[in-house]
Write the structure tokens for this entry.
Amino acid sequence: MRNAFADEILSLARQDPRVVLLSADIGNRLFDKLKAEFPDRFYNCGVAEANMIGVAAGLAQSGLRPFCYTITPFITYRCMEQIRVDLCYHHLPVTVVGTGSGLSYASLGGTHHSCEEMGMLRLLPGLTVGGPADAPELRALLRDSLNQNGPVYLRIGKKGEPEMHSAVPALKFGQSITLREGTDACILSIGTVLPVAMAAADKLAEQGISTRVVSFPTLKPLDEKCLTEVFSRFKVVATLEEHSILGGLGGSVAEWKADHPELNARLVRLGTPDEFLHLTCEQEEAREHYGLTAEGVASQIETLLRPA
Amino acid sequence: MADTDIASLNKIAAQMRGKVIEMVAASGAAHLASAMSCLDIVVAAYWRILKLDAATAADPLRDRFILSKGHAASALYAVLAERGFFSKDWLDSFATHGAPLAEQPAPGCAPGVELATGSLGHGLPVGAGHALAAQIQKHDYQVLVCMSDGECNEGTVWEAAMFAAARKLQNLTVVVDYNKWQATGRSNEVMQLSPLREKWAAFGWKAVEVDGHDISALIDALDRSKQETGKPTAIIANTVKGKGVSFMEDDNNWHYRVPKAAEVEAAKKELGLL
């Protein structure tokens, strides 16, 4: 996904002279092409993430379109106030991109995990929050970020994520994409955990349960049209994310549903629990640990549809 | 940009001090002494240094002035009104319900206010961004950031200092209003600030020290900051908190205190305004 990010930024820089990339001493060699072609449009801001966000604000106030890039916990938790004051309070068109989100860096320990940042950031007024599932969705959202007149946060994966789309989809912020139709249950998935949703739907099909899978890459603003439709149509709607069930997609949808008591579907929030992960493991094992697997997701949905 | 002489500028600075005293007395806002401390810096900048006036307040090529010590906003507002950026009537409603000018600046609250400040340590990183944008877009405007000494406690100040020096942001100048106080104590006791000029020099800046109430010296230092050195400039302006009124000078109670009517009158007399 990070290679797609570098490639797409280069393409955007070619199309739009306002595009400037700031990174915080990450992505060794990743941006070599951009640096070679546009030496004054890439800046390594050093291991000083908070300053990087402030610099981006100044660039945006002067008419440029900065993208800021580094590992998710550092560009989010550490920069919360800069994102809030410099970017959101001034409503500046800066796109903040966190790489290696969720449990991508599981093996590096809790300092490198980010299972709370979407919940924190979505509270900020005027901030668009997205989590593309794969490289094509990332490219679509990066392109659409240039259409926004305010700040954007994108949480992306690391590398080697399976591509769920054969081409760049026609996707804008606030929209979702149905990847598989179904009639009994619906899974709304944000971010790189989408293949788990698809595999879970296969498992459920073996049990005679027909499941719609929706890639739901924008946490804010929510695709309310989609929510209204799925909560009207299905018995069970599951949210799936490599993020805490507090505050992220599950939290957002739960809040939305509280405002729509007329809709009857049962909501189940699948994600990480309210705890730090202390297990030494890789991303796949971390997902297993939290039941974010095809079997885990299928079994949660099956239980709700067929109570014992 | 009329070349107002120094005697006139000193008189203007005294009038501005009288104005912020009235604004604080009327509104009950805090930080009077902080505003008085930086007033000569703001006057020198707006009357003699910045290529910026009411007509160019939104011009992409304008010089930028960022008051990073947003708690001293009354000083900036008084100067902007005097320079015709907005009506002086706005000063009368400063920090009152529904007024355009809040106690600390909000985004776009008034023509000439570049940045919502008040949370310290934001002005220099954003100012560095403006300065870098000039480099990228091949513009030749200057960016002037006024900070407080207490603000130098913030880590982002030093992140920005290293960044600006690495990027050779010669068009960026910071003036530190070094009044030796922060909210609750001496700024050299709360944190080890001293030696402040040497710190900025060690961070790769051209760093000079001036009397922050000598408008002529301030103008001279600000002019020199435009010289081609490949470095950003830090001007350590030695100031006195509450400058201009004997019973406020160097008395940190005036960080928060609001003058009573008799004190306003006494202050204005000392400033030669009555």
